[in-house]
Amino acid sequence: xxxSAKKDYVLDTQxxxxxxxxxxxxxxxxxxxxxxxxxxxxxxxFKLCELRETSQNALxxxxxxxxxxxxxxxxxxxxxxxxxxxxxxxDQRRILLRPTATAWELYETLIPKAHQITKATLAPLxxxxxxxxxxxxxxxx
Amino acid sequence: xxxSAKKDYVLDTQxxxxxxxxxxxxxxxxxxxxxxxxxxxxxxxFKLCELRETSQNALxxxxxxxxxxxxxxxxxxxxxxxxxxxxxxxDQRRILLRPTATAWELYETLIPKAHQITKATLAPLxxxxxxxxxxxxxxxx
DNA sequence: TCGATATTGTTTGTACGCAAATGGATTTTG
DNA sequence: CAAAATCCATTTGCGTACAAACAATATCGA
Lengths: 141, 141
Fold this sequence. Notes:
mainly alpha, about 65% helix, 7 helices, DNA-binding, homodimer, three-stranded antiparallel sheet
């Protein structure tokens, strides 16, 4: 291995490594602010509140989780009493999901906390940098 | 819930959600280019090559993995023949890790692929945007 | 020196996250 | 219409990721 090749690749400056660590930090901040549910459960629950009613797989698609993952997440949210099941009269394969009353209460409570978490996550950046960062991040998807 | 509160928080524009999806995309690109090992294993292996020799927990710290996580990663890399164990004469608690000859070969092979993955991940951004993105991302850690 | 404290590696339990396979229901298409 | 293709939910297997607890070893402070 040449010296140039060595300097050429330093783990600590790689996108993947940086994104993994940024994610770690965000999740740590999340659990500092919110006890009851995880970031993933939060995403699923909020999306369900946005959509009011969907099937399990559709909720998974809306939150970028595959069928196996969303199943576990929904199971846990249901166990905690945040999701209610109903049969779809038009499609016997589907399980229609709805947020429970408790879920709506949680939704209200969590919105301000979610803003705090966003703020804390982006705190190392100036207002202008925050906007740029979010714009570029969106482009990456 | 007021209408303003509703519009106030849309999941798809939140940092956490965006970072999770950007990470998903990066990992998908990674496995498109590299079959043998995962992004996490890659990080551990490369850091070990950078350090030449360390203990398990120290390697974990250097790659931002806790003790339980790095244990599994090291176990899998050892099973694949990339990591060699030695006893630390100065500290009986420690296991000194070293990359095997095969690991060094892999290291060489993977550097160009790693560059391709970085390039593909950042492809949606212009050169200038890529620099800005990496700078801001670093600040977030 | 010796007792408190810290560190190393390990295990257990819980929670994502994806690939691949399955069985049942629905839709498409020839 | 019937076969093929698709979609739904589920399961299994593997790989991160972290919290909490543990025994063994090192180190530090009184």
